[in-house]
Design brief:
The protein is mostly beta strands. It has two helices and 25 strands. The N and C termini lie far apart (35 Å).
């Protein structure tokens, strides 16, 4: 019997579990969350331990379902050091080009599109209804939130958060650990740790993107 270990028993974790079930990835799904043992269930699934309790190695797959980009990547690195097998979770309604590449531990949710020759780094999230068009390059730990759209050949640095319904026009470079606010329209390159919002997007200040 195949088992999928999901780290993070919040709302995003439930969406990842639902996608994994729809894709027929596992016969059994269990969660790990640092609120255990106070938290013992999430939806229909059991919470069986804390994040540190995920078994080492083995044939089962694991996926980190934490929205905080930096924390997600830190946990993914810890799993890699313990020889865990990281899953790629893709909802069956997502449209993934055969020439696209998805890094280990990445998640592509319902109705999302990943275009030809797009590349997703390790631990990326392309959320429900989001678009990553042709030739885009996403660094590790990027989150493209529901309904956000990246035009062709956009390059996004590691651990950047592209907010709900935001858009980035084609060919731009977005730096590392940026935060693009919900509904923003990005029409120029952004340096590392930018925080932008509005139409067109303008600076809100500078700080690391946490994916809160």
């Amino acid at each position: 019997m195949s088992k999928l270990h999901i780290l993070g028993a919040g709302g995003h974790g439930k969406v990842v579990a639902d996608a994994a079930l729809a894709a027929g990835m596992a016969d059994e799904i269990v969660f790990y969350d640092d609120r255990f043992p106070t938290l013992t269930t999430v939806g229909a699934w059991p919470v069986v331990g804390r994040l540190e309790d995920v078994p080492e190695g083995g044939r089962d797959l694991a996926v980190v379902a934490l929205g905080d980009n930096a924390l997600r990547m830190r946990i993914i690195q810890q799993l890699a050091e313990r020889d865990a097998s990281l899953a790629r979770v893709v909802h069956p309604s997502a449209a993934i080009s055969r020439s696209a590449t998805l890094g280990e531990g990445s998640v592509v949710l319902a109705q999302a599109v990943v275009g030809p020759d797009a590349e997703l780094g390790r631990g990326c999230i392309v959320n429900s209804g989001a678009t990553v068009d042709h030739d885009c390059r996403l660094g590790e730990g990027v989150h493209v939130a529901p309904g956000a759209h990246l035009g062709g050949a956009v390059v996004v640095g590691r651990e950047t958060w592209i907010g709900l319904g935001a858009s980035v026009i084609e060919g731009l470079r977005i730096g590392e650990r940026c935060l693009v606010a919900a509904g923003a329209a990005v029409v120029h390159d952004l340096p590392d740790q930018s925080r932008v919002g509005g139409v067109p997007a303008k600076a809100l200040g500078s700080a690391g993107a946490t994916g809160e």
